[in-house]
């Protein structure tokens, strides 16, 4: 499923997407060090809670960790592993990505494979 063009994702930032047109973001992508990584927008501490407190606010102020605004949990960007908070040791659900020849960022929403990092 197409999310966006790669140049629409700024370095060091995250952006949410609603690929199934459900009215709220269900997937988010982080671009860091030129790599792209994607996860489902659900905190593992409480399965239906979205992570950001406002649109695209997935990262802490320094851009180092993914943050759950409801529970204060912190997640490593590259692995999705919770490193602090009420779901310590649990992980975000990865969404494998591909980059098309035309620069489109594509997500495989039917897979629960390991994190799909695009370099």
Task: Describe the fold and architecture.
The protein has one domain (2-107): Rieske [2Fe-2S] iron-sulphur domain (Rieske Iron-sulfur Protein, 3-layer Sandwich). It is globular, with a radius of gyration of 13 Å. It has strands at residues 2-5, 13-17, 27-32, 35-40, 65-67, 74-76, 82-84, 97-99, 104-107. It is an all-beta fold. 0% of the residues lie in helices and 31% in strands. The protein is built from no helices and nine strands. The strands form three sheets. The protein has a three-stranded antiparallel sheet, with no helix packed on it. A three-stranded antiparallel sheet has the order 2-3-4, with no helix packed on it. The protein has a three-stranded antiparallel sheet with strand order 5-6-7, with no helix packed on it. It holds the Pfam family Rieske. It comes from Parahaliea maris. One of its GO terms (molecular function) is metal ion binding.
Per DSSP E runs of 2 or more residues, the count of β-strands stands at 9
Rough outline: globular
Low-confidence runs of at least 5 consecutive residues: none
Structural class: mainly beta
CATH class: Mainly Beta
Q: Estimate what percentage of residues fall within beta strands.
A: 25-35%
- Please trace the helix and strand order, writing H or E for each element: EEEEEEEEE
Total helix count?
0
Number of domains: 1
**From the alpha-carbon coordinates, what is the Rg to the nearest angstrom?**
13 Å
Spell out the CATH superfamily.
Rieske [2Fe-2S] iron-sulphur domain
What separation lies between the terminal Cα atoms?
18 Å
Looking across the biggest beta sheet, what order are the strands in? Answer: 1-9-8
CATH topology assignment:
Rieske Iron-sulfur Protein
Largest sheet report: 3 strands, antiparallel
**Please, what is the average pLDDT?**
90
Helix share, percent: under 10%
Pfam families: Rieske
Protein name: Rieske 2Fe-2S domain-containing protein
Keywords: 2Fe-2S, Iron, Iron-sulfur, Metal-binding
Organism: Parahaliea maris
């Amino acid at each position: 499923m197409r999310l966006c063009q790669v140049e629409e994702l700024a370095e060091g930032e995250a952006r949410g997407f609603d690929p199934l047109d459900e009215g709220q973001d269900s997937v988010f992508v982080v671009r860091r060090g030129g790599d792209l990584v994607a996860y489902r927008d659900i905190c593992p501490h409480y399965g239906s809670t979205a992570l950001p407190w406002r649109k695209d606010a997935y990262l802490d102020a320094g851009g180092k960790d993914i943050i759950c605004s409801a529970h204060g949990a912190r997640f490593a960007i590259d692995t999705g592993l919770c490193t602090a908070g009420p779901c310590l040791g649990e992980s975000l659900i990865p969404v494998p990505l591909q980059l098309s020849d035309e620069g489109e960022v594509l997500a495989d929403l039917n897979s629960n494979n390991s994190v799909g990092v695009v370099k």
